[in-house]
Amino acid sequence: MTTHTDAPADHVGTRARLRDIYAAAHEQTLHPNALGWPGRPDERELDFISHVVYGRPGMAREGCAYLVKELAQLAEIERHLSAVFGIITAQLGADTSPISDGYDLHHALSCFAAEEYLHADFFYRYVRELADTDIKLADSLFSERLALYQGDDSPYVKLAAMCMAAYIGESVITVFEKRTAHLDPGREHFLTKLLWAHGMDEARHVQVDHVVLECIMPSFSEAEQRRAFEIFSGTEELNAELAGRFKQLIVDVFGVDHTVDNPAWDVQQSLTSVFRQAMTVTWPPSPVDERMDDETRKLLHEFAGTDRVHP
Ligand SMILES: [Fe+2]
Ligand SMILES: [Fe+2]
Q1: Please, which pLDDT band fits residue 4 given cuts at 50, 70 and 90?
Q2: From ligand 1's centre to the CA of 5, what distance in Å?
């Protein structure tokens, strides 16, 4: 069994960071029941969706198709993370390295997993309200995606792989949250409110990802680095296959290809590529804001009215 033997340089400080991230989590969150579900979007909401996705009116159906595709897929990925974190926290119960002392790491990962499980719940509901029909994917590759994390790798290697994969998507959805907040600062639209509620939790996830990148991954052995990348790459490949399946499902349900002449999709693709590079080009991987070139920053500014993804 691969074990994590090199303690981070300052494990007391790392545990304190994790403790601080979650200290007010119960106050900065919203249970799915508290979202005030409006049901099917009305004309105003549909017009807003058209503007968020296409930047112009008249594209509500295509905008809904795009959101259903991306958010149904996100719910699957969030559910997977929750299950993977279940495996990791179970393994950490037997881990004797200093970062596992006490309950700070366990608490942070348990709360992270619980929040993602609730996100999977509210996006599951939201896409059905948007589509006005049930959304059933025959096979979401859940077993295959989980199997990547069921080997005898150390829980830290699994945590690194899962956080690298999650961090890319979490950074992209943060940009979309900022776009809706920019277009709708009073949160009058449900989509804005939903992404705002999601973002309260995601702000913590991103901070945990940064702790993993900055405090946990630098101490990996070469073998651990290699395995973290293998599991990360395997996750990315299966997620790409999952995305293809959702794309086909949306074509079947809406008769729409969400990738055609869709400016939000184009931005999503560009950002995903830059954020993936932040995970793969350097060791340890870098926070996305440190990897952003001028062109990407300009894109971010035009799309979401901000110069940074994360604080
Ligand atoms: Fe989430
Ligand atoms: Fe998250």
Answers
A1: very low
A2: 31
- CB-based burial label for 231 (10 Å; 0-12, 13-18, 19+): buried
Distance 261 CA to ligand 1 centre (A): 27
For the chain, give every domain's residue range.
11-18+39-304
Peptide bond into 284 cis (omega under 30): yes
Distance between CA atoms of residues 179 and 91, nearest Å: 39
Confidence (pTM):
0.95
**Residues lying with their CB under 5 A of ligand 1, a single-atom ion:** 78, 119
What distance in angstroms lies between residue 57's CA and the mean position of ligand 2's atoms? 31
Q: Position of tokens 């979650």?
A: 22
Residues with CB under 5 A from ligand 2 (ion): 170, 202, 205
Alpha carbons 131 and 121: distance in angstroms, whole number: 16
**CB-based contact 56:262 (threshold 8 Å):** no
Helix 294-304 to helix 155-183 angle (10° resolution) is 50
11-18+39-304 CATH, one of 2.60.40, 1.20.1260, 1.20.58, 1.25.40: 1.20.1260
Residue 111 CA to ligand 1 center (angstroms) comes to 12
Q: How far apart are the first and last CA of the chain?
A: 38
Is the pLDDT reported for residue 7 higher than 60?
A: no
Per-residue pLDDT of 254-270, as tens digits, reads: 998 889 999 999 999 99
Read off the pLDDT of residues 190-246 as tens digits, 9 standing for 90 and up.
Answer: 999 999 999 999 999 999 999 999 999 999 999 999 999 999 999 999 999 999 999
